[in-house]
Amino acid sequence: MSGKDAPPPEDYGQATRSVIVEGWRFLAHSYAIVNQWQLLALARRPDLVVRVMDVPLYGRRWQTQEGLFEPRAEQALRSMDTAGPDESADVTVRISFPFDFSPSRSRQTAVFGTSESQVIRKDQLPNLQAYERLQRTPPPPEVRVITPSRWSAEGFYNCGFKTEQVLIVPHGVDTDTFRPMPDFRSHIRSKIPIAEGDFVFLSVGAMTGNKGIDFLLRAFAEVSRKFPHARLVLKGMDPLYKSKALLHRSMQILSAEDRQRVMERTSYFGASFSNRKMAMFYQAADAYVSPYRAEGFNLPVLEAAASGIPIICTAGGATDDFVTDAFARKIESKKSPGRYKDQDIWWLEPRLEHLIVLMASAIEDKSWRERAAQAGPAHVGANYTWDRVVDTLVGKLLT
Predict the structure, then answer these.
(1) Cβ atoms of residues 199 and 231 within 8 Å
(2) Which of the listed residues 40, 200, 298, 382 has the most CB atoms within 10 Å of its CB?
(3) Residue 138 confidence (pLDDT)
(4) In 3D, which of 239, 251, 242, 245 has the Cα closest to residue 213?
(5) Sheet of 230-235: strands edge to edge?
(6) Residues in a beta bridge with 201
(7) CA dist., res. 122 & res. 346, Å (int)
(8) How far apart are CA 71 and CA 15, in angstroms?
(9) pTM (predicted TM-score)
(10) What is the pLDDT of residue 5?
(11) What pLDDT is recorded for position 14?
């Protein structure tokens, strides 16, 4: 049934409000994954009529992919009503890239976006004209921004959005998928392969510079000298980014001796994993490490915490919003100015020596790991399920 064939809202029983979501489905990009989890949670609400509009993929190499979600969830996503180009709703939510801040046909427009470096970059808008227009003219008052962290919100304030136009709504986790599964640990480690007595540090991401992979490699080289049983498992995103090549480039910063040491103890996976396979993958880890420079949210940290994996992550950034000392140890960092192409940006510089100390302490402090394995899932389950997140989103958009 298309959007035009759908009955009016009053015929949906309790449904009194309508939402059109413009974005990506059936894609492993973080925006698409967030969009799909949110769509499933929105569809569970009887008070909403939800229609979707697929938008063009951003990268020429990008391709849609089946099987990222469980069959039932994927069928629910596939069967959602489609909105036509001339249709309107109470709110249109855009969650794709580049950012389109133009008003929609709906009563209000909300654009999802992340500002990892606390500025809106030129390459985050469709063209230079759109960027220059945003610099000259305040964003339309009927257009609002949804962003997942206080750190990210600063980028939108800095380009002219008023405080009331920026809605800070965190991401969530499906805790039926991402949860502790200790019975699978040995099986998953045998597939990598990882010996039972090895200690595994895991990190997930595109391997781009903002992820701090160079810090992680340097720290791991030092830690593995003292702890030869330490292992590093990295999960990239080769179908969307050149993650493997970026990792190889970062390896070159190491001395020949350290590079050999790290490569012998590192396992890299670049394929797109389904949510279920990714949840199983977390079970192989003893600690999750993210020494990032700049993130809009950092969803893998939240997923790892939900999976019972202790966290080491940068202090001062987006993850400050959702990690606690009960399951996360924070790397000391300094906020510093930087340059991206021809723009001034902000990022964090984690302190390498402190990262080394925290990684070593994670190996040595078994009691902390055991406490964190309990505290992380409890915290996420109480505060960051997708239903809770969507309740917040709907409350801010439609009340």
Answers:
(1) yes
(2) 298
(3) 83
(4) 251
(5) 266-269, 230-235, 199-204, 287-290, 311-314, 328-331
(6) 232, 287
(7) 15
(8) 26
(9) 0.94
(10) 37
(11) 56
Q: Which residues contact 1 (CB under 8 A, 6 or more apart)?
A: 81
pLDDT at 15: 63
The CATH classification number of 182-383 equals: 3.40.50.2000
Query: How many whole angstroms separate alpha carbon 163 and alpha carbon 175?
Result: 32
User: In this predicted model, what pLDDT tens digit does every residue of 328-371 receive, in sequence order?
Assistant: 999 999 999 999 988 999 999 999 999 999 999 999 999 999 99
Residue 16 has a pLDDT of 86
How far apart, in whole angstroms, are the C-alpha atoms of residue 378 and residue 185?
A: 20
Q: Provide the edge-to-edge strand list for the sheet that holds 91-95.
A: 48-54, 17-23, 91-95, 108-112, 143-147, 166-168
- Residue segments in the chain with a per-residue pLDDT below the cut of 70: 1-15
Strand 91-95, strand 48-54: pairing:
unpaired
**Is-same-fold flag (9-172+386-398; 182-383)?**
yes
In the chain, where the domains are located? 9-172+386-398, 182-383
In eight-state DSSP terms, residue 8 is: P
CB 356 within 8 A of CB 136: no
CA-CA distance, 6 to 48, in Å (whole number)?
Answer: 13
Could you report the per-residue pLDDT of 48-100, keeping only the tens digit for each?
A: 999 999 999 998 889 999 999 999 999 999 999 999 999 999 999 999 999 99
Give ∠ CA 235-285-350 in degrees, rounded to 5.
Answer: 70
In this structure, are residues 3 and 51 in contact, taking their beta carbons and an 8 Å threshold?
A: yes
* CB contact at 8 A, 86 and 11: no
CA distance 255 to 260: 8
Closest C-alpha to 266, from 232, 312, 236: 232
pLDDT of 80 reads: 98
Q: How far is CA 58 from the centre of its chain?
A: 17
Choices 3.30.450, 3.40.50, 1.10.30, 2.60.40: CATH for 9-172+386-398? 3.40.50
> What is the per-residue burial (b if ≥16 Cβ within 10 Å, else e) of 302-332?
bbbbbbbbbbbbbbbbbbbbbbeeebbbbbb
Q: Which two tokens stand for residue 314?
A: 């940068």
Strand partners, 51: 20
